Amino acid sequence: MAALRKLLLAMAITADAGLLSLQEVKAFELTGAWATSAEQCKKVFARKGRANQVTFTNFSGVYGGGFIVEANRLRGKFENCSIKSKKETGQNVNMVVACASGIMLSNVQFFLKILDDNTISREFPGMDEMEVKYHRCQI
User: Does 11 map to a domain?
Assistant: First the structure.
């Protein structure tokens, strides 16, 4: 009887570990360049320098703008932000970032909704019907 209990316990632990690893694999990959229009990606972003780093074009704002997500950073045309926390719940990603612009430091909260692998929308709580869609750019 004790052997059967140990076997059942081992099977339960293995099953839980399998479910956890499936949930980890399912995490959304946010890293990359995101623009408000997929058709404008080449006008918003370019690769520059010896490292061929993705950066903003001179007139990126004219074409809708966007942002770049790296491992622990989020960059806009005029801001550099460090990702302080990130929580993913189903199709929603909630991030708190600490941003530095030319004149001030601030914490900003991002509420993102995953629409598909290459499309997200930024939602603004308290402002019903307001959202901005972003498309992943292949630069």
Answer: no
At residue 104, the pLDDT reads: 82
pTM, entire model? 0.76
Range of the domain at 43: 30-137
When the pLDDT of each residue in the chain is averaged and rounded to a whole number, the result is 84
DSSP code string of the chain: -HHHHHHHHHHHHHHHHHHHHHHHHT-----EEEES-GGGHHHHEEEETTTTEEEE-TTGGGGT-EEEE-SSEEE-SS-EEEEEEEEEETTEEEEEEEEE-SS-EEEEEEEEEEEETTEEEEE-TTSTT-EEEEEEE--
**Residue 132 CA neighbour count, 13 Å, CB half:** 13
5 in a structural domain: no
